[in-house]
């Protein structure tokens, strides 16, 4: 009994309709002092109102569990993507009720507006869906589901608490990875800006001998097969496979800068995961190296089915460091691990020509043995600032400085190209698509 009354008091809430009814009864008592003819009407109204409140309590509390609710969540969340979650709720009351549902989402989202109002019919389940977009990797802890129900009288509200505490890991953007994987397989990447590259000659990876059709390169005619068959036969070639593709991620303080709630490191991690997946689908070998003031994680290039999961687990744990990048250690690691010519995609960030020139000697050494692609970021906020018209002297000064920094980025691209190093200068939100675009272009040009 004591437990029941404890639950009764802690889970009972008064509604606005109850206070409105009490206000009306109070006004009737005030008016009775002015108008004697009201007599016992205020007493009758108050008695009826209290009976309605008692009836409402009985309606809501005659069942110990009048509501069932459960959260439906994925096993893991995808960073920087909209992850769909749902709440399954069902009423066991014999009448229609109005319900307000609160899902205690993780504190990382800093949201206090996750409230869903709905109407529930008896024994008819309903699913409420909503999206969450995490911007940091790590563990996200969900709390209870709280359901506030009201009967048709709506004078009081009863709260039901459902213990469903669970912790979900937030991994690098595997939803984005799957999206680009499907586009690469279906050759729909051109819709997202990936251009077709004209092949220069053909690769040396022989596939089959097939019948000649108009448009085939006549230089590939197989004369021996033609003589045996009586029809023109040509050799067919396919893209070279099992080439090594390494993503090298800079974890230094230069990658801590945030854009749209996501750090540059997270943008690089998402792009590396998507690029590795596309490389594996193209039957190349994908590998990973992370570096800051020292070498972090190293995943040797491979194309086994478990390789992508290995890369995903490593990327999940990576965090930004706050010291300079040790390029000497990076060069020594690449020379020690990469035994054949490989595509090395180096994700980093340069804010000035001086910062790039400090690393240039090591970049030139790496480019001597491998195809090096340096990927760094355009400061979109400075770009938008430089494009705004200046209204006074102060704004002219700010605009000039912004244009100077934006121009330095373009000079870095030219300086790298002067030394035979390919580069990509991209906005953070376009990083993944531009990186995959360049990889497919390199494959088409047979540059590795």
UniProtKB/TrEMBL annotation:
<keyword id="KW-1133">Transmembrane helix</keyword>
<keyword id="KW-0472">Membrane</keyword>
<feature type="transmembrane region" description="Helical">
    <location>
        <begin position="37"/>
        <end position="61"/>
    </location>
</feature>
<dbReference type="InterPro" id="IPR002881">
    <property type="entry name" value="DUF58"/>
</dbReference>
<feature type="domain" description="DUF58">
    <location>
        <begin position="208"/>
        <end position="358"/>
    </location>
</feature>
<feature type="transmembrane region" description="Helical">
    <location>
        <begin position="12"/>
        <end position="31"/>
    </location>
</feature>
<protein>
    <submittedName>
        <fullName>DUF58 domain-containing protein</fullName>
    </submittedName>
</protein>
<dbReference type="Pfam" id="PF01882">
    <property type="entry name" value="DUF58"/>
</dbReference>
<keyword id="KW-0812">Transmembrane</keyword>
